[in-house]
Amino acid sequence: MIDFPTPIETALAYIRIYNTHDPVALRRLYRDDFLVENPLWTGTKTVDEAVTTIQHVWATLPGARFELKNVIADGEV
Question: pTM of the prediction?
Answer without folding.
Answer: 0.78
